């Protein structure tokens, strides 16, 4: 396969389902060799079976030292998509320390450590993409910890972009609105919450995983060669209000 991304190597965290799975498929379609990282699961096994020889599954926890060691053994990568993350919506005053620690570990500490390891071996022309959220640009009820973690990664991306630019490495964020994935389906099954989301999106529709994956392809490609330190918000107008 020919094209600007063909033959290059990518690593995607949170690769087994939802956005991560769609991103892996799009990168494979663009001719990349893709390492998909996720905890061991039937979904990761099925991806390994379906995606073909250009896909390698790493059944590792993104918060683990084992992943960092694997990255250091397998360097270099041309693209990192830091996609793994989670959310546990709760009223601010009810957030337990365990919830706080879990979201900070998965949504902030893990992407920082993975990006740091990748950047050490990334060649000039490399790209790092952090998957954040529209909640990295605004606030929202019952999402204090999630908003905090996504704002943190937005700030991290800007600082990384400035520091890594002399090495020829670009760093950006993609900030989606709600996308229909296994993580959001249980939230959107609540009629009152689904109505809230509909009111907040002027386009009155959720994003699709394929739309987010298309943004990854764009930011990874030479077409985005002058874009760094940016957050591409794909939110149907949520943050325009």
From TrEMBL:
Database matches in Gene3D superfamilies: NAD(P)-binding Rossmann-like Domain
Q: Which InterPro entries match?
A: L-xylulose/Carbonyl_redctase, NAD(P)-bd_dom_sf, Sc_DH/Rdtase_CS, SDR_fam
- What Pfam families does UniProt report for this protein, alphabetically? adh_short_C2
Q: Per UniProt, what is one GO molecular function of this protein?
A: L-xylulose reductase (NADPH) activity
CDD domains in the record: SDR_c
Keywords recorded for this protein, A-Z: NADP
> Which processes are annotated in GO (biological process)?
glucose metabolic process; xylulose metabolic process
Signal peptide, first to last residue: none
Q: Which residues are in coiled coils? A: none
Subunit structure comment from the entry: Homotetramer.
Q: Which family does it belong to?
A: Belongs to the short-chain dehydrogenases/reductases (SDR) family.
| Identification of the protein by name | 3-oxoacyl-ACP reductase
Origin species, per record, is Novosphingobium fuchskuhlense
């Amino acid at each position: 396969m020919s094209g600007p991304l063909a033959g290059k190597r990518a690593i995607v965290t949170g690769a087994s389902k939802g956005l991560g799975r769609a991103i892996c498929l799009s990168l494979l379609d663009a001719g990349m060799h893709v390492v998909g990282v996720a905890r061991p699961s039937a979904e990761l096994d099925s991806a390994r079976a379906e995606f073909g020889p250009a896909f390698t599954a790493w059944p590792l926890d993104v918060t683990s030292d084992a992943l960092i060691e694997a990255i250091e053994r397998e360097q270099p990568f041309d693209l990192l998509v830091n996609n793994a993350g989670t959310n546990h919506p709760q009223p601010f005053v009810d957030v337990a320390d365990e919830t706080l620690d879990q979201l900070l570990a998965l949504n902030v500490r893990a992407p920082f450590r993975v990006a740091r390891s990748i950047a050490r071996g990334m060649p000039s022309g490399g790209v790092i993409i952090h998957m954040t959220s529209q909640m990295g640009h605004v606030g929202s009820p019952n999402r204090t910890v999630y908003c905090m973690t996504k704002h943190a990664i937005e700030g991290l991306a800007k600082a990384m972009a400035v520091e890594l630019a002399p090495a020829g490495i670009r760093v950006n964020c993609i900030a989606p609105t709600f996308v229909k994935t296994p993580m959001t389906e249980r939230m959107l099954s609540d009629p009152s919450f689904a109505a809230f989301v509909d009111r907040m999106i002027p386009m009155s529709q959720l994003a699709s995983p394929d739309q987010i994956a298309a943004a990854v392809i764009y930011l990874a490609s030479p077409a985005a060669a002058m874009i760094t330190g940016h957050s591409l918000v794909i939110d149907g107008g949520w943050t325009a209000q």
